[in-house]
Amino acid sequence: MGEMKAADRVTLGLAFLRTMVRIREFEMHARIGYDRGEIPGVVHLSIGQEAVPAGVCANLRRDDYVASTHRGHGHCIAKGADVTAMMAELFGKTTGTCKGKGGSMHIADFSVGMLGANGVVGGGIGIAVGAAQAARLLHKDAISACFFGDGAVNRGPFLEGLNWAAVFNLPVLFICEDNTFSAFTRASDTTAGKGPTARAEAIGVRALSVDGNNVFAVYEAARELVEGIRAGHGPGFLHAPTYRLDGHTVFDKAPYRSNEEVEYHRGDDPVALLESRLHAWGVDGTQLDAIHIEAREEMVRAMEAARKAPSPSEADAFADVQLIGAPR
Ligand SMILES: Cc1ncc(C[n+]2csc(CCOP(=O)(O)OP(=O)(O)O)c2C)c(N)n1
Predict the structure, then answer these.
(1) I want to staple 122 with a disulfide (CB 3.0 to 4.6 A). Which of 46, 157, 177, 238 is the partner?
(2) 283 ligand 1 Cβ < 6 A
């Protein structure tokens, strides 16, 4: 950011804030929908982690690919998915991005290169690497960005995916969005050795580690890696430590951590950090408030549209899905 002009950094910061606040408002409204019984299935929120998708996806083009996790709303929104269709998807309605058949945990929007959230921890890694290999075979210059949690680095697809991408010099940005927990367990209690960055480096993948609550730092580290990837230097790896402020799922009260710990991390809330930075750069409080109001109104409209949208009919139950157990 050293060389960026003051006006440019404010413009960029406001764009980051818009994305991050839209993610947060989407998720706060999703929680309301879940609590009211309007959203079926389980919902995982990424409140507190918004700087990672916002900073990374600002370096991606629409035709680049993103593979996500079970906590994927932020990746979808930052990649440009339509929140009205996303909310309808959570409600299980026909106007959803997957016609209501994916829900929160399998949401996808191919029109913006978002290849899907994934209920299988580490499952997105193979998809992202496969998409990058396909892009190579089809002579496309798109890259793949693959988000996964700190728990996924202990699964087989992590080794397989990074190894494959390194061997074939594929255009993949791996992002370990390290929210401190792996479901109900501290990832540090289940991870041996020196951590995700050391593991990536051991496979020969260039790796950077960055404060995952600082959106400018995420953006710049991702930019450096993406420039190398687009220049044909092979995969890159970004480790972005952050903190999951809510429970693992909407119904997890997180008894495995103290209130003091959560309050401590609220002091590093990425949205609040960015706002105080923008404030220090001379941005008016009313301008910041307007971003929140606009996002809230957008999500209220998305909820209303989702409520009114039709549910899928029984006759469509086996359309657009694998024909396993379909009546003949
Ligand atoms: C292959 C597999 N094993 C176990 C689970 C159960 N599970 C769901 S979420 C989760 C924790 C994953 O931790 P992490 O990758 O750090 O993501 P986070 O939930 O922290 O965002 C686990 C173990 C699963 N979904 N898939």
Answers:
(1) 157
(2) no
Residue 183 in contact with ligand 1 by CB distance below 6 A = yes
Three-class DSSP category at 65: strand
User: 228-250 as b/e, with b when 16 or more CB fall inside 10 Å?
Assistant: bbbeeebbbbbbbbbbbbbbbbb
Whole-model pTM above 0.70? Answer: yes
CB of 150 shorter than 6 A to ligand 1: yes
Question: If one looks up domain 6-308 in CATH, what number appears?
Answer: 3.40.50.970
**pLDDT tens-digit readout, 173-216:** 999 999 999 999 999 999 999 999 999 999 999 999 999 999 99
pLDDT digits (tens, 9 = 90+) for 121-143: 999 999 999 999 999 999 999 99
Q: Which of 189, 179, 175, 180 is nearest to 218 (CA)?
A: 175
3-state helix, strand, coil in the chain (%, to 5): 50, 10, 40
